[in-house]
Amino acid sequence: MIIIPAIDLKDGKCVRLLQGREEDVTVYSDDPAGMARHWVECGAKLLHVVDLDGAFTGEQKNFERIREIRRAIHIPIELGGGIRDIGRIDNLMTLGVDRVIIGTSAANNPEMVKDACEKYPGKVIVGIDAKDGKVAVKGWVEVTEFDAVEFGVNMEKLGAAGIIYTDISRDGMLTGPNIDAMAKMVASVKIPVIASGGVSKLEDIKNLMQIKNLWGIITGKALYSGALDLRQAIDFARGAV
After folding, report:
1. Domain ranges, ordered by start, for the chain
2. What is the pLDDT of residues 34-67, one digit of tens each?
3. The one catalytic residue among 8, 51, 53, 171
4. pTM confidence score
5. Which of 129, 167, 171, 204 is catalytic?
6. What tens digit of pLDDT does each residue of 149-164 get?
7. Active site residue 24
8. Highest CATH level, class, for 2-237
C-alpha cells in the first residue's frame, strides 16, 4: 500500500477545492515545487498532480509549474487535468511526467484512451470520479449516466494501466472514504486501483487497507490542514506503526 500526496494547481498555486467546486478554493502555497520537495522529504514515493485549470477549461495553464515540479523532485509524477488529446500527452511525456491521468476524455472519447494506451503502454491511468455511482466529468461539473464500475471494466479492456477512483461526495470533506464503493471497484478489475477522496485520518487509511488488492491512497486536504501527517501515514501503511 502506497500513500500518495496530492498537489492541485490553479492559477499557478497549490490549492484544494471543496467537493471539486471551482468557487470553493483554498490556497495553500504559491510554490508548488517547494511543496513537492517537502512531500518527498516526508517520504513520498509518488506524487499526484492535478491541473485544475485544465480540468475546468480543457486548457492546461500550469505547464511551467509542472516543469518546475518535475525539475525539483526525483520521484515519479502522475498528472491529470485537461488532457484531451494525444498531443498533450506527448508534451507531458516530453516534460518528464511518468504517468498521465485521463478523466473527462475517457468518457467522451474512449478511442483516445485506447490510442494513448497503445502509444504509451503502462503510462496511462484513467481517473474515475463518481457521484452516487455515476461517472462525473469536466471537473465534476457534469454527472453522466455511466455506471462507475462498468466504466472501470471498460477502461481496463482498452488498456488502462490503472484507475484512480474518487467519490466526489467525500473529496475535501474530511468525512472518510466510501469503503463499499472502493471495494466494489477493486474487486471488479485486475489493474491497480488508487483510492481518492475523503481520507482525513489514520483510521481512514486503516479502513482502506482492509480492501484486498487496493494499490494506493491519495490524500490532499488532510495533509495541508494538518489533520494527517504524511510521514506517519506512510509508516502506518507500511505496517511500521
Report:
1. 2-237
2. 999 999 999 999 999 999 887 777 677 799 999 9
3. 8
4. 0.91
5. 129
6. 999 999 999 999 999 9
7. no
8. alpha beta
